[in-house]
Backbone:
């Protein structure tokens, strides 16, 4: 399992004109995140329990009521190939890093509107769908309603990753002309909702630009606390620019040993600086951090 090192740095208007940080520096800062979160909230000790981690990060987060959702439920078939570490390996370093990623997003939401989050990458095979599949699970553990939208209508993989087979999804809804939201499923076990891509349409970009996608996102915003969108890579498609206009922040996923500097620079140039929440460095080879976490993890109950 790849180890995840999230690199989230607030990049609002106050950072205008500032160069993007290098990935190694920011990833190192993330390893110090628990102490920073502790000082920024109530000053209590950050225990190894997940509930304590979230409690320290949330601080004075404002909660708003959401409309009830009533969609069919589906059982998820979790296999090792699914890589749903938040569910199958909750005590692993990878799962812990996803929990820290959730903490970071909640912290960002204390200072800016942030409900609809876009997850993308520069090129294929950098692990964006892996991040998209695990992040909603850790967000949902706070008893919040979380929706994962499979926004890659060309090469969808999430429904297969959850062992769900072929389901009607976003593509079918965009073509239906219906004003009623449908094709959303509650995933039993993970605890969040999924709108799969469905069968690949012949004209995905045209469908996304029809105006119906904007209508859908407007309707969903009142029903969920978080909406996570797994979009296609930035290069060479234009689909992600459509999603970027309908979301409030972007996470850029990169992979160590895969993403070339020129590609990363080109991808960053395509994202509005005020929209960039940060970068997720996937596949990082930091064995020392793994050993550290194992030494301080709670013992297994027998």
Residues:
């Amino acid at each position: 399992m790849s180890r995840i090192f999230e690199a989230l740095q607030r990049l609002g208007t106050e950072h205008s004109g500032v160069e993007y940080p290098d990935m190694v520096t920011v990833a190192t800062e993330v390893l110090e995140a628990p102490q920073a979160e502790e000082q920024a909230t109530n000053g209590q000790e950050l225990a190894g329990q997940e509930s304590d981690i979230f409690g320290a990060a949330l601080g004075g987060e404002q909660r708003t009521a959401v409309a009830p959702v009533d969609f069919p439920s589906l059982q998820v078939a979790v296999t090792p190939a699914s890589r749903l570490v938040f569910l199958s390996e909750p005590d692993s370093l990878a799962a812990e890093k996803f929990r820290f990623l959730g903490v970071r997003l909640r912290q960002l939401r204390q200072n800016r509107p942030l409900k609809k989050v876009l997850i993308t990458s520069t090129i294929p095979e950098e692990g964006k769908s892996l991040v998209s599949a695990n992040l909603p699970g850790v967000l949902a553990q706070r008893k919040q309603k979380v929706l994962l939208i499979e926004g890659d209508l060309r090469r969808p993989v999430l429904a297969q990753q959850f062992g769900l087979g072929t389901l009607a999804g976003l593509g079918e809804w965009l073509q239906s002309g219906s004003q009623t939201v449908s094709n959303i499923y509650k995933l039993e076990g993970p605890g969040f909702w999924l709108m799969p891509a469905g069968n690949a349409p012949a004209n995905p970009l045209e469908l996304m630009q029809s105006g119906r996608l904007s209508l859908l996102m407007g309707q969903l915003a009142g029903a969920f606390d978080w909406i996570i969108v797994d979009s296609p890579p930035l290069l060479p498609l234009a689909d992600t620019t459509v999603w970027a206009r309908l979301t409030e922040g972007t996470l850029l996923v990169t992979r160590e040993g895969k993403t070339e500097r020129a590609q990363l620079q080109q991808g960053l140039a395509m994202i509005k600086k005020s929209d960039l929440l940060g970068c997720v460095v996937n596949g990082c080879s930091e064995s020392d951090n793994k050993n550290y976490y194992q030494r301080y993890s709670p013992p297994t109950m027998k």
